[in-house]
Amino acid sequence: QTRMQSLRPEPAARYRNVLEALWRIARTEGVWRPMRGMNITATGAGPAHALYFACYEKLKKTLSDVIHAGGNSHVANGAAGCVATLLHDAAMNPAEVVKQRMQMYNSPYQRVTDCVRAVWRNEGAGAFYRSYTTQLTMNIPFQAIHFMTYEFLQEQLNPHRQYNPGSHVVSGACAGAVAAAATTPLDVCKTLLNTQESLALSSNISGHITGMANAFRTVYQVGGVTAYFRGVQARVIYQMPSTAIAWSVYEFFKYILTKRQEERRAGK
Fold first, then answer.
1. Which of 47, 127, 195, 264 has the largest CB neighbor count within 10 A?
2. d(Cα 225, Cα 230) in Å, to the nearest integer?
3. How many Cβ atoms sit within 10 Å of the Cβ of residue 264?
4. Model confidence at 177, in pLDDT bands (50, 70, 90)?
5. Which domain covers residue 232, as residue numbers?
6. What reaction does this catalyse (predicted)?
7. Where are the beta strands (DSSP E) in the chain?
């Protein structure tokens, strides 16, 4: 996804679709090359998702009771998702910066620690949060669409809101796909801010690209309107299994923990 969103890729890093990209990267750079950055992503994802779902569940219940006592409110679901995103992205943004820099074509970094040290030394600590406002600008609408779509589909597929693995997988995958496609232009800008892509910066653009407005102008200047949708296919393909797995795991542990609490109450 990171490479397909590149505004001015090297000739050897131009891909027509996701399958071609994976095949060529694996063939020319090694089978494990597409997995670069996975370790830092996994490290950041644990605490980020813990904050994310804990905040979402608490706020969803509180806001739903205020807006529609005893019922389910799509406004509450969207608002809870937005607030949860603030915490999630604060924990995840540095990991995302490192991951994307390691995934760029001809990345000079061999290890995560090399990348972290180089970014810190050359650009300062602020570089790890340079795209934070853009990340929020992207993820707040993403999560609002994501949560509202998921809860809407659950009402249709699982109206009694019981633990139903199939409905959680389908709802999660569809919600992720819709949200991913709708927010691709913002993701392209975020990728540019994270990577500070050298070929884009050399196109009559001086200094570091900072802020979403600057990134939007740069994307349009370099690639036109179509550049905002670079990598949309890869983004949807990535998000569908990701959100399906996340919701399935979340609903499973929610079911197990709720069941244990009910058993303890019954035992008393």
1. 195
2. 10
3. 9
4. very high
5. 11-267
6. Fe(2+)(in) = Fe(2+)(out)
7. none
